[in-house]
Design brief:
Distance between the termini: 88 Å
Shape: elongated
Structural class: alpha+beta
Number of helices: 1
Helix content: 25-40%
Bound molecules: zinc ion
Order of helices and strands: EEEH
Length: 91
């Protein structure tokens, strides 16, 4: 048998998908938190975040550290919902 099949089975059009992801600097958690700034050498630096719901103040120093804020928001919502339910059910 004549097996002269082309070895290179490379699917054409390997398009260059060098698309940069537009990562937003501001996270959506700030919809539920108030940023608290501290002025250092005339420069405002975000240091804390205040929860809209329970008024808790969480540390939010630096950039891109909103994981715990997300977690807090989630538990805060769950807690407030549970509290509302308990209040509605019985005293
Ligand atoms: Zn909260």
């Amino acid at each position: 048998m004549d097996s002269s099949a082309p070895a290179s089975a490379t699917p054409g059009s390997t398009g260059s998908t060098g698309r940069k992801r537009g990562q937003k600097c501001t996270s959506d958690v700030w919809d539920d938190f108030d940023p608290i700034y501290n002025e250092v050498n005339g420069v405002k630096v975000k240091v804390k975040a205040k929860c809209h719901r329970c008024k808790s103040i969480l540390s939010a120093a630096g950039s891109g550290g909103t994981g715990h804020l997300r977690r807090h928001r989630k538990s805060c919502i769950a807690k407030s919902e549970r509290t509302a339910r308990v209040q509605g059910a019985s005293v």
